[in-house]
Amino acid sequence: MSNKTAGIHHVTAFVRNAQQTADFYAGVLGLRLIKKTINFDAPEVYHLYFGNEAGSPGTIITFFPYENSRKGRIGGGQVGYTTYVVPLDAFDFWKERLAKLNVAVTQTSRFGEQYLQFADPDGLLLEIVARAEGPASKWTFGGVPADKAIKGFGGAILYSTAPDKTADLLVNVMGLEKVGQEGAYARFKATGELGNLIDVNVEKMEPGHGGAGTVHHIAWRAKDDEEHALWRSHVASSGFQPTPIVDRQYFNAIYFREEGGILFEIATDPPGFARDEEPEKLGEKLMLPEWFEPHRPQIVEMLSPFEVRVLEEDK
Predict the structure, then answer these.
(1) Verdict on whether the full-model pTM lies above 0.85
(2) Boundaries of each VOC domain copy (predicted)?
């Protein structure tokens, strides 16, 4: 095993409201709701997955909508910005679209690239960059045509309380390559075409705290179960304390916290989201693992209904 991840598998965040989240990530950003399930550790809470047409690794953002959760504060030990990548000719489309939908945007530059930075309704920080690499999305929804659609992740900005240690882990454990340093950030590159450029603050950052509008963890890709087991051994032998392998139905997972405070996951690419739904029906039904299926009526009663809908501005 070469101990090199292809990049980000998924990002998981806390929000407050399922309908508001669907309106933003499907309605505004044009992503597909690819799985509607529950938090296996708290079945009264949805676990919602949004991505490209198939929920391919490197495109998936997931949410736990806790309706009465506290507001989080983004800071050290968290993902600061989640970066989305769009086709090269789509940057102006997104600039105009976000303005039309009254999403406040700041345009900035980093490492020679232009970014549109904005927040979702809970304050989760996002940005859009245009790049040639990475497969195009085939999904279209509302006012977002497929040729302008978000491809998936471009990467992320990690906020670390110990940036030198986070940088060392990215290179010497996760297998990324340091490719530059500019101003407040160092840049690291993974081997994949999506979710492959990671920026880390170079100065120590004060810790944030979890809650609505913050990322819970960032997950990295393992190509299969065999490699995943090797990753667990590799992480442990590197001085970290990975969890046992956990079955998340659509991938297997291990978790560990790196020394800059950020919770890392390593997740398998297979089996994917079509294991319990037809590809054309993804996200349409509430899917429960078999051990929760006998409790479906009680679970449904605890969950607030919501729908994926086209925004009025796009009708």
Answers:
(1) yes
(2) 7-131, 152-269
